[in-house]
Amino acid sequence: MLQTSKWGIDGAIKDPKSITAQWNPSSLTFIDGVFVKEVKNVIKNNGYLTEIYRQDWELDELTVAQIFQVSLNPHGISAWHAHEITTDRIFVNNGSIKIVLYDAREESPTYGQINEFRCGELRPMLVIVPPRVWHGVQNYTSEPAALLNIVDKAYQYDNPDHWRIPMDSPEIPYTFS
């Protein structure tokens, strides 16, 4: 055992394991139906290229019905919302955004679980959010940020598949900070 008596400070606590050798969070179990595809930036002579979505990744078999962008002001938060039948595929294309998911589906094996992903240009990933999973996004930086959402069902203006509760709802055990 390592002796810390000559350099340690009383009350110091050693960090627990938080990441694997593959740079995946060591304690994260995905909510049932959630998939994450980390992608790599391809460095080019004139900048870089980042793939956002490919059907041959076989993450799902759903269609692409609409793609839209959401811009978030510095420290902006959009939460909480869910869809009854729509699947979201979220990709942060500018800046840094925290994506937080909450499984309120009583029949789900991950009922009550929270997932939190920090995504952005430095760690690009596609996060697939199944129907009936509550989610919120937060720009946690002092610069503008944006995300793309690649949905399987286009927004229905006359009958939106969009449910909302307040960001500080006690129904979800998470506080944006």
From TrEMBL:
<dbReference type="Pfam" id="PF00908">
    <property type="entry name" value="dTDP_sugar_isom"/>
</dbReference>
<comment type="function">
    <text>Catalyzes the epimerization of the C3' and C5'positions of dTDP-6-deoxy-D-xylo-4-hexulose, forming dTDP-6-deoxy-L-lyxo-4-hexulose.</text>
</comment>
<dbReference type="GO" id="GO:0008830">
    <property type="term" value="F:dTDP-4-dehydrorhamnose 3,5-epimerase activity"/>
</dbReference>
<dbReference type="InterPro" id="IPR011051">
    <property type="entry name" value="RmlC_Cupin_sf"/>
</dbReference>
<dbReference type="GO" id="GO:0005829">
    <property type="term" value="C:cytosol"/>
</dbReference>
<dbReference type="InterPro" id="IPR000888">
    <property type="entry name" value="RmlC-like"/>
</dbReference>
<protein>
    <recommendedName>
        <fullName>dTDP-4-dehydrorhamnose 3,5-epimerase</fullName>
        <ecNumber>5.1.3.13</ecNumber>
    </recommendedName>
</protein>
<dbReference type="InterPro" id="IPR014710">
    <property type="entry name" value="RmlC-like_jellyroll"/>
</dbReference>
<dbReference type="GO" id="GO:0000271">
    <property type="term" value="P:polysaccharide biosynthetic process"/>
</dbReference>
<feature type="site" description="Participates in a stacking interaction with the thymidine ring of dTDP-4-oxo-6-deoxyglucose">
    <location>
        <position position="155"/>
    </location>
</feature>
